[in-house]
Automatic annotation (TrEMBL):
UniProt KW keywords: FAD, Flavoprotein, Membrane, Transmembrane, Transmembrane helix
Region (Disordered): 685-705, 789-817
Stated name of the protein: Jg24312 protein
Protein family: Belongs to the GMC oxidoreductase family.
Gene Ontology MF annotations: flavin adenine dinucleotide binding; oxidoreductase activity, acting on CH-OH group of donors
Amino acid sequence: MATHERLSLKPIVSSTRIIFGLLPGLGVMILLRMVIHLYRPDIEDAENRVRDHSFDELYEYYDFIIIGAGSAGSVMASRLSENPEWNILLLEAGQDENVLSDVPILFPALQTSSIDWQFVTEPSNDYCLSMVDARCKWPRGKVLGGSSSLNAMLYIRGNKKDYDNWENLGNEGWAYRNILKYFLKAENMRIPEYQYDPYHSTGGPISVEYFRFEQPITNIILQASQQLGYNIVDVNGKLQTGFTRSHATLHDGLRCSTAKGYLRSASKRRNLHVSVHSLVEKILIDEYKKAYGIIFKKNGKSRIIKSTKEVILSAGAIQSPQLLMLSGVGNIEHLKEVGIYPVAHLPGVGQNLQDHIAMGGHSFLFDNPYSNGTDYSFNLNSIMSIGSLIDFAINKNGPLYSMMEAEAMGFVNSKYQDPAEDYPDIQFFIAPSADNMDGGIFGKRANGLTDETYAELYEDILYKPSFSIVPLLLRPKSRGYLKLRDANPYSPPLIYPNYYADPDDMLRMIDGARIAQNLVDQPALRELNARPNPNRNPGCLKHHLMSNEHLECQARHHSLTIYHPVGTCAMGPANDYNAVVDSRLRVYGIGNLRVIDGSIMPTIVSGNTNAPIIMIAEKASDMIKTDWAVASNYLSKYQSNGAINMKYMELRNVQDVASKLDVFTEVTSLFPHLSKNLTLKYNNSKHETKPLHKSEKSKNSSFDKDVRTPIKSYATPLFNNFIPPDYYNTRNSAGSALFKPYPYNHYRTDKSSLTDFPDSKQNILNLLAFPSYASSKYSTHNTNNEGFYGAWSPEGNNQNNEKSHNEKQTNSYYTKDRSIQNEGRECQLWLYYNGVKYQIEI
Ligand SMILES: Cc1cc2nc3c(=O)[nH]c(=O)nc-3n(C[C@H](O)[C@H](O)[C@H](O)COP(=O)(O)OP(=O)(O)OC[C@H]3O[C@@H](n4cnc5c(N)ncnc54)[C@H](O)[C@@H]3O)c2cc1C
Ligand SMILES: *[C@@H]1O[C@H](CO)[C@@H](O)[C@H](O)[C@H]1NC(C)=O
Ligand SMILES: *[C@@H]1O[C@H](CO)[C@@H](O)[C@H](O)[C@H]1NC(C)=O
Ligand SMILES: *[C@@H]1O[C@H](CO)[C@@H](O)[C@H](O)[C@H]1NC(C)=O
Ligand SMILES: CC(=O)N[C@H]1CO[C@H](CO)[C@@H](O)[C@@H]1O
């Protein structure tokens, strides 16, 4: 595999730096979370967030049971519950949406967090070679909104021909002319120039905007694309070939997941019950081969709930086939292998796996034309600055509103594709950054790149102005598959993507990379001295930089999924051996069961998959409404009556978990990987808790004036719906833990396992993870056992009564001392806890 032509210390230097980088990551998250709490109640949106329905108050029967609250499942729950005669249960294995995932810049940080299932592919000799263990990471959302709550928010519908092909394969009603109306139904176009365009509409649940903050280099790359002969077009309109600033699923600049767009309003309906932390283990199928319910587990307790009409499987392209197989629906031979009693032989379940694969490491350096210090591309230091935090908190703009992975994109034709067809086979993600720009904190970790590769590629160009043009294959011919690891619903399935199995895929990829190089050779970019990263992948040193062999080697080493696995329960006509569902998305051979999500795509669409999956669910809801219209005067004896509803309304606000905002637990449990290796510097000499006076603080107090005066009283928890991700599972005995992410390092939240070393680093870790625990344990003062629930010290604001409240009631508060750090960063956050001063670097 990797050829070592020279010995290098880079990997060691690099991994040391990354370990130090972990804590700043967590410090920033905590600070940002506090800022949102204080200044952005619009983001917390406490009133509208979905409330978890109590386990014991769930009905015995529902008309429809929907498995998975992802892109598709959220749409289904919202649309089906529009019919007040139907009771709907929506079961989601993950947690409620997290406040931080609204912030576009945090996109890469959400991967490997607790809202990510953290799947990995099986090792291969042909692709993902630069990744740890030759496994690519496959993040998927484990949260309300599913993958739409952690995706890159890019809004792309695909090519008209994709859908016409679906119809040609025998799927009636799926041609572009049939489905366009469902794209329109879902859309709320907020980009002014497209609002009155026949290809767009306003008023739908998913709003589409440009990212609110973009780097200057992006515009230069768009100029270069025109010099190369492409037009700037609406890639979601009449013609797809061309370039554009990215359209994104954003509402007022913040993430618009399907949980936000579809579920928040619907969840107030009395006929919709949403249950989170509820993993469905099996779909129940009777002797007549009809689905009649499910069995699921929550809080360590199992329950069977039955459906009077249908079970709807929307667990996504990895878990929908998994759950079908667990329920006995799949290839009989494979089911026998893992010891599952077969109910129906459907050999296509888990087959036909398609994904968009990209060539990573396609990074370019350039010279910043500004000499006054203003950035021209992504710069971690200016993003993690107090200025950008203030912009975000007060002005509602600034770099936290940017999504650095693709500010623009292009759809181009390789030399194997006839440009006259307007059916581009290559998509470019245009990023005003490269993996050198974050020191490996996010991008490297998200992709699973090895330390060695990262060091060789980026260590000597760290933080230099850069951009990336990442080519990806829009319609790969290779097909992969999924299998069960075993019969345990908590085991992640085996994933074999088979990237580049078809040689045609590699030819197109190499040509795509060449088009990207031509783009960089255009005058607009040449003027900035744009040039390829001179460092080569350590596995490809034997090839000449510009050769086809080198590009192929790079594609096989630096393989990047664009996170679009689909096709594993493909729709097709009855005579298609591998079809799993028919064109009304009903599972062949099983009654009252549909699959509605990305897995039904017979062929992958030529673009990002979120909007097409929302379209699929919009269309499916209409089909279901039509199919049951004959029985529309059907009155279920289990239908809710007024009494039940009253009870429900009371219950929905009762939480059996802490109702206080606790940013530390919330953030550390969202980012368990950041809270590991916590190397807090702390100063344990006793510090008087009396707040400092203004004069003792930093000379420059412009920040203090702005941010120290809370707009909202910090004393009122605005958002009390947070349930730590593994709350239910860790409180209960073994066997109930959700999938353990590879490499199976389970995050502990079990208090009893914590050791008690006063003033040790371990205790600081405990403290961050369990403030209330720590508070009761170490408090020498008369605290109110609140720990430090985000109490922001209004120090320097002596007239403020809240200060004394704060001083008396909690013995802990944050403050900030200005100091210049090595990299020119300007801020430090101090945490005072029981008279001890801790420094949190940001
Ligand atoms: C990191 C990332 C970035 C992406 N970027 C983009 C982008 O920029 N633009 C774009 O268009 N697309 C993007 N995508 C792809 C897109 O988001 C997905 O294709 C889409 O969200 C999938 O929708 P789905 O309904 O099929 O599945 P999901 O949205 O994944 O929903 C499945 C849901 O089912 C739940 N579930 C699974 N098993 C069970 C069970 N047994 N019991 C209960 N619940 C269960 C899961 O927790 C999840 O919430 C991205 C995806 C990822 C992961
Ligand atoms: C630096 O120069 C650019 C281009 O002239 C300008 O847009 C930007 O605002 C300047 N930055 C500062 C801090 O003056
Ligand atoms: C620790 O804090 C004390 C009191 O605030 C201070 O005098 C001392 O210099 C600090 N030590 C370090 C290493 O920062
Ligand atoms: C104070 O901060 C402002 C804004 O960041 C800056 O322009 C000014 O030069 C600073 N003043 C001092 C004395 O550091
Ligand atoms: C000091 C310490 O705990 N280091 C650990 C950091 O995490 C890595 C893996 O995530 C461990 O290998 C180190 O031992």
